[in-house]
Amino acid sequence: MRKFSFIVSLVMLLVLTSSRHQTTIFMIGDSTMANKPYDNEKQERGWGMVLQGFFTDDIIVDNHAVNGRSSKSFIDEGRWQVVLDKIKPGDYVFIQFGHNDEKPKKDRHTDPGSTFDANLSKFVTETRQRGGIPVLFNCVVRRNFQKIVPENDDDEKLRNTVYTGQKVAEGDSLVDTHGDYRIAPRNVAKTLNVPFVDANRITHELEQGMGAEGSKRLHLWFKPGENPSMPNGREDNTHYSVYGAHVVASLLVDEIARQVPALKKYVRHYDYIVADNGQGNYMSLQQAVDEAPSGKKTRIRILHGEWNYPTVPKGKKIKFSVSENARLIKRP
After folding, report:
1. Do 58 and 126 belong to one domain?
2. 203-211 long-range contacts, Cβ below 8 Å, gap at least 24?
3. Is 226 one of the annotated active-site residues of the chain?
């Protein structure tokens, strides 16, 4: 009888699991949001790459953001059509462009109040036609504490920079580099009655609060020899480090919950997120456990991959949360 009851319970669990509805969040945008290579200890991350770790398994984050793309090139290259064909009723589309729309190249450039707004409106309208829910974001800030904005016709070139150690005159105030490109998404959102996440304001407050020196940690500032993937170091004020992407995603997901209340119940915050695909802030479960403080409750989300149960030192109070895309193998 007990065996029969167990089998019935197991079948019911499998049925419930298989019938559980999952909502997809499609993300379209540029390198500040995009997925990045994570092999050989590479440190660059887009905030969209790590967003999955801030939701329950009821939400699937499908990140289509690509380095160097503007709202124009994303459409012209057929990338938007790929997303559009996948949208189901009730899915979300997170839209964030601006960094590359402001660049002079003809294959990317748009104008705020004109072509930029038209492309954002296209994303919104066509998402709704598929039964999806659009959410507009404006562009995150660049780390610029210089009073005169340095010329940069292509943020992607920053990956070729090396650490120079040269001191650049910086002030105490973060200076905007986006102009009307940060305002246009708000205007479109208001006109079309779309949820709007002011990512520019949120990241401005973050970087300003950390200051000219502290905010370097959010980005790819490494001295030679600090990381094997960047032997000559790097000075990059646009793209995020592992740490920076997680801090930004953590702040933005809370604002997403405020602007899109239906998503609030799926939002989660953990002390550490472990994944073997670069989506976490740790790629080693044992390392996360080792660095957890003693005597303090620590929540570790095991987001992706197969892991042997780690050695937990005495005195550490660790609670593991295992995603359906991960497996924790307990010791015999």
Report:
1. yes
2. 203/140, 203/141, 203/248, 203/251, 204/141, 204/174, 204/176, 206/247, 206/248, 206/251, 207/141, 207/143, 207/174, 208/173, 208/174, 211/172
3. no
